[in-house]
Specification:
Blueprint (H helix, E strand, L loop, with lengths): L4 E2 L2 H17 L8 E7 L3 H17 L2 E7 L5 H13 L5 E4 L9 H7 L11 H8 L8 H12 L8 E5 L6 H10 L3 E5 L6 H5 L4 E4 L17 E4 L3 E2 L5 E2 L4 H4 L5 E2 L6 H20 L3
Parallel strand pairs: 1-11, 2-3, 2-4, 5-6, 5-7, 7-8, 8-11
Antiparallel strand pairs: 9-10
Bound molecules: guanine.
The site of guanine has 6 residues, from strand 4.
């Protein structure tokens, strides 16, 4: 039985980060690319994620301004900070880590960030431009999935792509990204009838549902490319994906592991988005 090739997202991220680091060290200006990161409250996972984002940004030479606001911060106070950062020419990217405390409207905050400083691709203007196939900033996880798919050299044009999960930050923008590349895209979700009839026709299957090891080999077409976006923490503290890796590896042609698959590439894409915003703002 031929086993799937495991797509090493960690190594791909390292390569992208090394290339970016070289570009930054070659800069002829003293204005360094700068990312502002904001966390509100004490969500433990958010603190771990953002610490990792700041660290990796610094590793490639992107400067960071980290703001840690207490959970009783009002929406107005957060809006004031965002307005200040929008106006600050030394800041090229702004990232507000989600989720926010219930007292703050997330959509209001997302829309307050200057679309040209948005590094998450969550701003409605950036989502709209993606729909129009005139992308400005695209969300990091969809970009990470696309990068992994491109590494397989499979043909995207005309491919049947099935995405399980319809979130605004993964499923929907990824569907647009792949439709723009001429794939035939199906979005499935919790209300989808006969999920297997869809997934078994997928040349490329992308799973972003947050349900540990939900997808076994019975959902996978022979030799499909399988991308696992899930990051699930099990009771024993280990992390696993939405795909049952051990069962799918004998059926797929390419498979992403969890951890070290989509995750590290998502941060690499954040750094790319920050760099792209920087070069546009400085007209480099
Ligand atoms: N929370 C979970 N994922 C993300 C992300 O990609 N960006 C932001 N800003 N918050 C998140």
């Amino acid at each position: 039985m031929k086993q799937a090739i495991i797509l090493d997202g960690q190594q791909m991220a390292q390569e992208l980060n090394n290339q970016l680091k070289a570009k930054i060290s070659d800069l002829k200006t003293s204005i360094m690319p700068t990312l502002a990161t904001i966390i509100v409250g004490d969500n433990e996972a958010s603190h771990i994620y953002v610490a990792n984002k700041n660290k990796q940004a610094n590793n490639v030479g992107i400067q960071t301004k980290a703001f840690y606001l207490t959970s009783d911060t009002s929406e107005n106070e957060l809006l004031k900070l965002i307005t200040k950062l929008n106006q600050d020419e030394s800041v090229h990217g702004i990232l507000v880590q989600l989720p926010l405390p219930k007292s703050i409207n997330e959509q209001t905050i997302i829309e307050a960030i200057d679309a040209n400083k948005d590094v998450d691709g969550f701003h409605p203007k950036n989502l709209g431009l993606l729909m129009l196939n005139k992308p400005n900033t695209v969300a990091c996880t969809p970009l990470a999935c696309l990068h992994l798919i491109k590494q397989t050299n499979c043909q995207i044009s005309g491919a049947n792509v099935v995405i399980i999960g319809r979130s605004n930050i993964v499923g929907k923008p990824l569907a647009a990204l792949l439709a723009n590349l001429d794939a035939t895209v199906t979005i499935c979700h919790a209300k989808t009838k006969n999920l297997k009839t869809h997934t078994l026709s997928a040349d490329i299957l992308i799973v972003a549902i947050g349900n540990p090891r939900f997808i076994d080999e019975s959902y996978v077409k022979e030799r499909a490319v399988v991308i696992d976006v899930g990051i699930n923490r099990l009771a024993n503290k280990t992390i696993c994906g939405d795909v049952d890796f051990a069962k799918v590896i004998d059926k797929a042609s390419f498979l992403t592991p969890v951890p070290k698959g989509v995750g590290p590439l998502t941060i690499a894409m954040l750094l790319q988005n920050t760099w792209n915003n920087y070069t546009k703002q400085l007209k480099l």
